[in-house]
TrEMBL record:
The record marks D151 as: Important for catalysis. It holds the Pfam family ELFV_dehydrog. NAD(+) binds at T197, N236. The keyword Translocase does not apply. Residues 190-472 form the Glutamate/phenylalanine/leucine/valine/L-tryptophan dehydrogenase C-terminal domain. SMART domains: ELFV_dehydrog (SM00839). The keyword Nucleotide-binding applies. InterPro entries: Aminoacid_DH-like_N_sf, Glu/Leu/Phe/Val/Trp_DH, Glu/Leu/Phe/Val/Trp_DH_C, Glu/Leu/Phe/Val/Trp_DH_dimer, Glu/Leu/Phe/Val_DH_AS, Glu_DH, NAD(P)-bd_dom_sf, NAD_bind_Glu_DH. It comes from Candidatus Opimibacter skivensis. The active site is at K109. This is Glutamate dehydrogenase. Substrate binds at K73, K97, S366.
Length: 475
């Protein structure tokens, strides 16, 4: 074995390498590029929490990458792997993601270095509330300052604790509910936030596959129907990406990987049944009709059309990129393919749908939730009945003029006024379609643009630099 060890880029260095590749295609002055790239504020904290009879010192972070728009926005991660570099990389990605999908926020991210599985619900509540108190003390949370959301290891439950803690310290603040998004629907949340990232992943893959020429170049037929998919990570993002791609896109899920191992089934794995099986048995292994692959990491080498890494960063590296047989990698997670691995994949002709675009559905619907909280009214409240009455009149007129009457079921469909969930899905779909088309247009402009990620960065940098110029900071 060779004595020499290759030094790999850290996650933040990998994001910055991608940034630099895109910056080289722009005319943005170096000083402005430096300002965009740097993390504006890094808050590294440690606080004691009493667990059982002992005090534990918990390490945590909140990073605000860019203040070109306020509030800053980004999820909170609970994981024993959390570190400063990771949170900085994730915060930077949030700035580029928000710019790309026209969500008017700066980027931020939070991380608490704990393994949530090792704590009871009460202990997690204590840790979350204490972390929130630290954020309040340093002005790192607030509807107009910095607005957290769920990420790896957290969900609506933690967001409800954050809101409650914030309200205790900000009694009477009328917009307090907008201090955090991803809240439970009955606690100032929005319909459709839980599924939003996975649904956005589906819309993004579908939009890529809607272009005949691009599919042909990959040796594929257009459309998502019948395409084989492998998913890594059955958490929030992975489970909804798989379920919606299967139910609404007719994709065939042939492989799934989780902490306990990887399963494969050529005929397809029913996502709803698999999720129930894992809930009942605590594992995906042994799912009827599936084969367990020898190693958990074998998911990368499964022969399929689309690989969907939906767990963590640095999963596809220079070590395993050569094994990939898929033609598309759909980055549902943040940073699953390292910048250096992407070089290898590009040479192999593999298309990467980049994280900053593909998983932007979460922050898009978080933006809708924030707007809902600030307007103090659910979407659809004003117009639903009006639409329903207009459509009913239209159908009745049609029936009178033609002498034909539509059945009750058709009438219900035709006269349905938009509910909150309809509007949220419509806004999300529109966002994902428009953002992909902007990336594609830039990518097609110059053959020297390396890939869709570089094109996505170019679109984001153009918008962020425009904001700085408008602010008068870089005239
Ligand atoms: P989650 O905690 O709900 O789920 C992650 C799942 O991945 C867990 O079930 C975990 O067991 C599994 N996992 C971890 N390591 C694994 C491994 N080595 N092999 C196989 N499975 C593994 O987290 P999530 O919210 O779904 O986030 C997943 C990714 O998506 C993260 O990169 C996150 O930053 C990104 N993301 C999340 C959101 C969101 O709205 N939650 C939005 C945008 C991006």
């Amino acid at each position: 074995m060779s004595e020499t060890t290759t030094k790999h880029l850290s996650f933040f260095e990998s994001v910055n390498r991608n940034f630099d590749m895109a910056a080289a295609h722009t005319n943005i002055p170096k000083g402005l590029l430096d300002q965009i790239k740097i993390c504006n504020a890094v808050y590294e904290m440690a606080f004691p929490v009493k667990i059982g009879d002992e005090y534990q010192v918990i390490e945590a972070f909140r990073v605000q990458h860019s203040h070109h728009r306020l509030p800053t926005k980004g999820g909170i991660r609970f994981s024993h792997l959390v570190n400063r570099d990771e949170v900085m990389a994730l915060a930077a990605l949030m700035s580029y993601k928000c710019a790309l999908v026209d969500v008017p926020f700066g980027g931020a991210k939070g991380g608490v270095k704990i393994s949530p599985r090792k704590y009871t619900e009460q202990e997690l509540e204590k840790i979350t509330r204490r972390y929130t108190t630290e954020l309040i003390r340093k002005n790192f949370i607030g509807p107009g300052l910095d607005v957290p959301a769920p990420d790896y290891g957290t969900g609506s439950r933690e967001m409800a604790w954050i809101l409650d803690t914030y309200q205790v310290f900000n009694h009477g603040e009328i917009d307090a509910a907008a201090c955090v998004t991803g809240k439970p629907e009955n606690q100032n949340g929005i319909n459709g936030r839980t599924e939003a990232t996975g649904r956005g992943v589906f819309y993004g893959i579908r939009q890529f596959l809607s272009y005949n020429d691009d599919c042909k170049a990959l040796g594929m037929s257009p459309g998502i129907a019948g395409k084989t998919m492998v998913i890594q990570g059955l958490g929030n993002v992975g489970s909804y990406s798989g379920t919606i791609s299967q139910d609404e896109g007719d994709a065939l899920i042939v492989g799934v990987s989780e902490i306990e191992g990887t399963i494969y089934c050529q005929k397809g794995i029913d996502m709803a049944k698999l999720l129930k099986y894992r809930k009942d048995n605590g594992s995906i292994l042994g799912f009827p009709g599936s084969t367990t692959l020898p190693e958990r990491t074998d998911w990368v080498a499964i022969d399929c059309d689309i690989l969907v890494p939906a767990a963590l960063e640095n999963q596809i590296t220079t070590e395993n990129a050569g094994k990939i047989k898929a033609r598309i990698i759909a980055e549902a997670a943040n940073g699953p393919v390292t910048s250096e691995a992407a070089d290898i994949l590009r040479k192999k002709g593999v298309v990467i749908l980049p994280d900053m675009y593909l998983n932007a559905g979460g922050v898009t619907v978080s933006y809708f939730e924030w707007l809902k909280n600030l307007s103090h009214m659910r979407f659809g409240r004003m117009e639903k009945r009006y639409q329903q009455n207009s459509l009913t009149n239209l159908v009745s007129t049609f029936e009178r003029l033609t002498g034909h009457s539509v059945g009750m079921k058709e009438r219900d469909i035709l006269t349905h006024g938009a509910d909150e969930i309809d509007l949220v899905r419509s806004g999300l779909e529109d966002t994902m379609v428009n953002a992909y088309d902007q990336i594609r247009e830039v990518y097609k402009q110059k053959s020297s643009i390396e890939d869709l990620r570089t094109a996505a960065f170019i679109v984001a940098l153009d918008k962020i630099s425009g904001d700085y110029v408008r602010l008068g900071i870089f005239p």
